[in-house]
Each structure stands twice: as C-alpha cells, then as structure tokens.
Amino acid sequence: MSGATTTAIIKRKGQRPTEAFDREKLHHSIVAASLSARAPEGQADNIAYAVTNYVLEWLESRPEVTSHDIRLVATRHLRAHHPDAAYLYEQHRNIL
Length: 96
Description:
Elements: E1 8-10, E2 19-20, H1 23-36, H2 41-59, E3 64-66, H3 67-81, H4 83-95
Parallel strand pairs: 1-3
Antiparallel strand pairs: 1-2
Helix pairs in contact: 1-2, 1-4, 2-3, 3-4
Pfam families: ATP-cone
Keywords: ATP-binding, Nucleotide-binding
Domain ATP-cone: 7-96
C-alpha cells in the first residue's frame, strides 16, 4: 500500500476547508491513543500501521468522506486490536 490517496476529507461540521487524507496524521493519532491506553511503543506502532492500512483500503473507492467517517472506521478496526485505545480514540474530542 503506497498510502497515496486522492480522497478529500470534509472537516468536522464543515467549519474548516476540505483537505487531502493524511496517512501520517491518522497513524500518529492511533499511536497516541494506544500509548495513552498503556500499550507498549512497538505494539502501538503495529496497531497504528494495521488500522491505517485498513482505513486506506476503505478509502480507495471513496472520492470524499467526512473526518467523522474516518474516525468511525478507524475506531471499529482499532477496537479489534485494543479496546481501551479505541475508546480513547473515539472519545478524544469529548475528553478534551
């Protein structure tokens, strides 16, 4: 998987301009949630890699999605790897 996608991401509630999907941004968010849930660093990176690749495959046939759609898909896949990290990732906006 190259990570290159032309999918446009519509930001939350349309408050900010649409932007291109950023694989590294998603990867970093998943790593951060996993580390916050006390996953070891290597495991957090492996989980983030798996979740990011899953989301990239999901995006392949979609020219445009919302940031909320990405969060839902990533959370669903993350839950299979680390339920506590998935909860933190899903609730991130509510916790802050």
